Amino acid sequence: MMKRALRQLRRLLSPALRRPDLLASEELEAGLDVVYRFLLARGADEGGRRHYLRLMREEGMKLREVAAEIAASDEFQRRLKRRTGRFNEQLTDAPPPEGFVDVRELMNTLSVAELAATAEDYFRKTIDFADRYLAKPLADPHDAPDLLGSFAQLLGGLRLAPGMAVLDFGAGTCWTTRFLTQLGCAVTAVDVSATALALGRDLFTRLPPLGDRPEPRFLLFDGYRIELPDASVDRIVCFDAFHHVPNPADVMRELARVLRPGGIAGFSEPGPNHSKAATSQYEMKNFTALENDVVMADIWRWARAAGFSGLELAIFSTESCRVSLQQFEDLVAGGAPLDEYGERLRGFLTGHQMFFLRKGEQTIDSRDRDGLRGEIAIHLERAEVRGGEPLRGRATVQNVGDAVWLPGQTLVGGVNLGVHLRTRDGRPLAVDFQRIGLETSTVPGQAQVVDFAFAPPAPGEYLLEFDLVSEGVGWFEMNGSATATVAIAVR
Prior knowledge:
Blueprint: H1 2-13, H2 25-40, H3 46-59, H4 63-71, H5 74-84, H6 87-93, H7 103-109, H8 112-125, H9 130-135, H10 144-158, E1 165-169, H11 175-182, E2 186-191, H12 194-206, E3 217-220, E4 233-239, H13 248-258, E5 259-269, H14 278-287, H15 296-306, E6 310-313, H16 325-332, H17 339-351, E7 353-358, E8 374-380, E9 384-385, E10 391-399, E11 415-423, E12 428-436, E13 447-454, E14 460-470, E15 474-475, E16 484-490
Parallel strand pairs: 1-2, 1-4, 2-3, 4-5, 9-16
Antiparallel strand pairs: 5-7, 6-7, 8-10, 10-13, 11-12, 11-14, 14-15, 14-16
Helix pairs in contact: 1-4, 2-4, 5-17, 13-15
């Protein structure tokens, strides 16, 4: 059926397919739009339009080659499946094109160690592109929106917090590792390619994260065992890497082993027909790079066997749908969803799967800003003291949020009671005037009582505003928690 469709398309676009060099710019765009509408039943999206016009104008790509590439895309194959209901059988019955690489045959022919060696060989052969690797995700204007948009969605689902131990699995040249480190995570970058990890180290040397951040670790993976202790990481990030794994069930067990109870593993991967895409065939043909299909039923079966307890998939798209002001206002006001965007979203999701695996029941602690809520009551022994005489009192704080408060001495996420110094009319004098330490953890619903004494400010009349603070994360007032204010006088 695909061959018949392509023959019909060829007839529709003749003679443009035979002499694309004769096409004016507007005719080239019109031809591209015909290809999109015929094969995908929609106009060309802006990203695809820019990509293919650049290839045709600058690199001499022909419309017939554009049509062949789009016909090999996950979106077209999904449409074909929906229309015939017999997509898999057709793929099985139809003879593969000349030079077609069957990913299953590749996995059956080469061992895990051999495929790991091909990954290392890939980076060694393409070392001339080192700067391009290190510039990711901003190496290419065409790829950047998808990389940045997907990574942002992955971060949102992982609920990261500063100080978390994060495994960046399949880190490659480590641009994701650098981003995670900049967020304050203690990251271990794992990859089968020593050359890729060496480039990652070079990235941190040339472009170190800003501020005081944990030093990343770089760990070579043998394809079987991750050299980390059991239950040693809080989160796992796998960005566009799991589909390169030749032994996914074994690796899934390793990921579950090193993840702590309550942890999350987040994946951003291609779709169930990824191996058939033109770019995948190119990589497998020229570099023996494994470009496996990602079938969610298989993923969930391996994950449950490994000990994961929950699976969530993200519905999103990095491709926006641009509309008129009237359409926008109608939609925001409660109008019906746009059919065009729904179709585009479905097309995106056939080739982009983001999913999160959970291990056990998730607990939130005070490294997560969203769960921070508290109530404060302050009792001063005396509201008026002499200069040099300590201010003494008792504070009662209660956890009314969702997060467990870590002990105050915890470097990131420890909860203490802070004091802001203000004038009597409320103007700030010192935001970090004092800290009152909370020595133990506090679960939701629990209260702590702590006695305090600290040196007063210079003689004058002031307000002391008490607010809880998660160190390195933020003040509780930022989440809407009420502060407690008392007036003092220093004579």
